[in-house]
Amino acid sequence: MPGGDVTHTSPTVRSADGAGPLVPAALASAGAGIIHATAVGSHGEHAGMVRLFILAAVVQIAVALFALLRPTARAAAIGLIGANAVAFVFWGVTRAVGIGWIDGLQRPEPLGLADSFAALLAVAAVVGGTIVLVGRVLPTSQVPVAGAALLVVALSVPAMVDAASHDHTHDHAHTDDHAHTDDHDHTDDHAHTDDHDHAHGDDADHDHHDDDHDHTDDHDQTDDHEHEHTDDHEHGATAGVALEQPTWPRPWDPTGPIDFSGVPGVTPEQQARAEQLVADTLEVLPRFADVESIAELGFRSIGDARTGFEHFINTDYIFDEHFLDPRHPESLVYEVDGDERTLVSAMFIASNRPVDDPELLDFAGPLMEWHVHDNLCWGLDDDGNPAVKAVTDDHGGVCPPGTVLAGGDNPMVHVWIAPHDCGPFAALEGHGAGQAATGVQQRADQCAHDHHDGHDGHDGNDGNDGNDGHDGHDHGDAVVPPEPYDPDLPIDLGGVEGVTPEQQAFAENLVARTLWYLPQWADPEVAEAAGFRSIGDGGTGHEHYVQWDWIDDDVWLDPNYPESLVYEPQPDGSKKLVSAMYMLPSDMSLDDIPDWGGRLMQWHIHDDLCFTRDTEAPRVGAVIEIGGECPDHLQKMDPAPMIHVWIRPHECGPFAALDGVGAGQVAEGEEHFCNHAHGAH
Fold first, then answer.
1. C-alpha 66: how far from chain center
2. DSSP 3-state assignment of 164?
3. Phi-psi region of 492 (alpha: psi -120 to 50; beta: other; left: phi over 0)
4. Angle at which helices 23-39 and 47-69 cross, to 10°
């Protein structure tokens, strides 16, 4: 218009008084980039992640510098929005599902301080750039800019410190000073303290198991429930002292460092993957601790609770896209204690591939053994759900009528969040071990039970090497060549006619748990501090210590709370722990005992012993005829059913009774059973 002012527009955003409107957003982007640059050094083991952090740092810092130089340029706003939006989306994906094609990010990462602050700064940059781009410019005087700068520094500095010290194994540091935080403290599943309060009578409702089996999402078991071991039973290295690591497999303690180093044939990549899998499982799996809540997720029991371990399977997870993902475990394993279920392991299942698939074998190399169960016969339970009914081993290689052979050819592997003497990937005993690609002698998920080095009563060196059990003794009705019982070898109690797979598995698991936990009582002084008292029968060659308060409680067959301990007096005056003697409540008869282990487990009573009237430590004062009366100064105890579980080789197997008076009385119509099929001679 002639004589009027002409206003020329340019591709810029509107500016307010003071500093440029993009300065706060640019500072936020620069802060996020600096955090990513700091994180490079702590992820050097993953080349893909290093390149990703470098790229993010360069781009975020570059767009920040451009915005500081051109604080009113539209291109600067678009650059801030685009770079930081991509960074935020990428961060969200790595936390939600992982990125399979980037080494180190194959599985979801947990939230951390550094990455969370970097994501927050990226969001601030996107919001600031968007506000400017749409024309809603706020005044940016020096005071708000200074405040923004201080906020960026407040977020960036602690995030950079965290990023520089970040351990990519989710803080499961592989050092001797490793410690789990309070909300992830994996102590012994069967934690025990000497001041343990046993409930009795009407109040005995497993109160004393609440702490032992409290696997909440926080997984918090404090030091008050710390499982007490003697020095010889500690695993891992003492701070500042490098202990020689044994070969593989080796005992697994989830409270210690996750360190699978020193195993021949294992590459650094395989070790890192195995350690990462265990760390992830320890962190994530406890969300499934409540067995009552997993049904709504699709988990169903396979009906094997009688074995001592119950598997719950989610068939939808078997055929989904997740692989070795503790957020989507194909099977959950719970230890059974009456009505209690304690989560102890995940069992990951890989579908539609052979057990020797190269991808499976390469994942952790010799550290991990995949196995199958191609001998399981399935039927329907009372609710119409699939359940294991039999194994082909006991039926001439075929399934019995009414069952089908199915589902067991998918490779599977355990990852334990509870202690296990055969390592974090251990298979179960007996039928639970399944079939692996390698021979039994080479399997990496089974081991000798000799991890209690230095523990009296569990060194297997009692003059019986357990290797000559087939020397002409009658093996009863064995249908396959049985193995002698040797606690230094994998436990196999098969080969006895009339024993079901469930009974065999129950017996094998009871022996395995006893071998693992009972040596905590190797020192009689430790036992006495827990309330055990000798009954004064050491002159027989075996001395029984009884915890009288534990007989009539509601805890059965638990080596953390054994009713009686059996020691062998030694020539030097010491006492060697050789057996547990589990006792059921005194109001039970031999006819009331569940048929847990069938013929393998023969219970007995003692109705011929008279004890002193000492209320704290009764001692055997006389032996009378069965059914007789004790002298006035002595008393007869109610005859509680009892059974031994030996932690050393025994010529009559792991559940053998003593000889002579110590053998007690068995159920009417039975004879004392010496299990030569599994005896060590």
1. 52
2. helix
3. beta
4. 160
482 near 495, Cβ under 8 Å?
yes
Give the per-residue pLDDT at 165.
54
d(C-alpha 188, C-alpha 213), whole Å: 10
- H or E segment to which residue 300 belongs: strand 300-301
Tokens representing 379?
Answer: 């039927």
Hey, which residues does 412 pair with through a beta bridge? 349, 371
Show the tokens assigned to 182. 């309070």
Cα torsion through 250, 254, 256, 257, rounded to 10: 80
Residue 670: other Cβ atoms inside 10 A: 12
Longest dimension (CA), the chain: 134
Partners of 611 in the β-ladder:
620, 635
The torsion of the CA quartet 325, 329, 330, 334, rounded to 10 degrees, works out to 150
Bond into 519 cis (ω within 30): no
Q: CB of 646 within 8 A of CB of 578?
A: yes
Strands (DSSP E) found in 350-427: 371-372, 376-380, 386-391, 404-405, 412-416
Angle between helices 23-39 and 113-133 (to 10 degrees): 150
Six token digits for residue 431: 């039928």
In 3D space, the residue among 451, 425, 389, 59 whose CA is nearest the CA of residue 270 turns out to be 425
pLDDT of residue 578: 94
- What is residue 76's three-state secondary structure? helix
- Tell me the HSE value of 200 on the side-chain side, using a 13 A CA sphere: 9
Per-residue model confidence as pLDDT tens digits over 557-602: 999 999 999 999 998 889 999 999 999 998 998 988 988 999 899 9
What is the bridge-based pairing of β-strands 412-416 and 435-436? Answer: unpaired
In SS3 terms, 480-536 reads as CCCCCCCCCCCCCCCCCCCCCHHHHHHHHHHHHHHHHHHHHHCCHHHHHHCCCEECC
Look at the pTM and tell me if it is higher than 0.70: no
Rounded Cα distance, 640 and 611, in Å = 14
User: How far are the Cα atoms of 307, 335, 568 from residue 344, in angstroms, in the given order?
Assistant: 14, 6, 33
Place of tokens 């994906």: 93
- Tallying the residues shown for the chain, one arrives at 681
Parallel, antiparallel, or unpaired for β 386-391 and 376-380? Answer: antiparallel
Helix (H) / strand (E) element for 310: namely: strand 309-313
Which token pair is 283?
């962190």
* Measured CA distances, 484 to 328, 466, 495, 646, 677 (Å): 40, 6, 11, 13, 6
Beta bridge partners of 380: 386
- Please state, as a whole number, how many other Cβ atoms lie within 10 Å of the Cβ of residue 316: 12
Q: What is the pLDDT of residue 558?
A: 92
Q: What is the pLDDT of residue 378?
A: 74
- Distance from C-alpha of 495 to C-alpha of 475, rounded to nearest angstrom: 9
Task: Round the CA-based radius of gyration of the chain to a whole number and report it.
Answer: 32
SS3 assignment for 579-604: EEEEECCCCCCHHHCCCCCHHHCCCE
Please, which residues have CB within 8 angstroms of residue 681's CB and are 6 or more apart in sequence? 464, 468, 469, 471, 473, 484, 651
Residue 257 has pLDDT above 70, yes or no: yes
Q: What percent of the chain has pLDDT over 70?
A: 69
d(C-alpha 176, C-alpha 166), whole Å: 17
pLDDT of 325? 94
